[in-house]
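[#protein-structures] MJ: dropping BAR domain-containing protein here for a structure pass
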Amino acid sequence: MRNLFNREKTTAFPKEFEDALTALKITKQCTEDTVKALEKVLRDPNKNEEKVEEILAVGKICEKYTNTFGDGSLTTVLTSSSTVLSVVAKKEKQMRKECYEHVLLPVKVWAQDDYPRFMKDVEKCRKLRDQMESAGKAVQNKNTEEKIVKFEAAKNEFNKSYESCKQEVDRTKKVHQHHMNCMKLMSQHHLMFFKAVDEELNKATEAMAKCVESQAKPSKQ
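AK: finished. structure tokens for BAR domain-containing protein:
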């Protein structure tokens, strides 16, 4: 017992555990920076509709004048443009909603809720270690049954807390994979969005081309 309590400086946890905590602290800072960047791009779709409304406004202007120019190519352009802009606005809103809920929020929750909660458990465990060492030194100074019981109780409390923290840190080591999966999901949503927009543009272009082609043919006498 003397070797345990006579050290000049003690460490609450083994070096491997302390290194894992340091890595998580760095991950937390990186995550917070990522969240700030994502918030600028995604925004809460339930609170900010400016971008969608801007796109829809242009589409509504096109729709407004579709019956102004008869059945010519300009009408086809206006109709096709209105359709494309409407579809793009809806799909863009849906994409942001999916990314906000399934990418930004999970990452943000880890940084703002999960990590701080875990660190509170770690600090509690550090205090239990201090209490255990204090009780152990008391036993060393004057070995009584009461002090031994107090030390054993403090040691059991610390061991229980430490094992819980150790299991938690093992789980949080997987946070990198979690964040990577979230970013991968965002890329997939953007890819599907751009693919859908490209398909709508191709439809519109094809409709305009057919209209121009039909007007270019000489009318039969």
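MJ: nice. The chain has one domain: 14-216.
AK: one more thing. The chain is about 85% helix and 0% strand.
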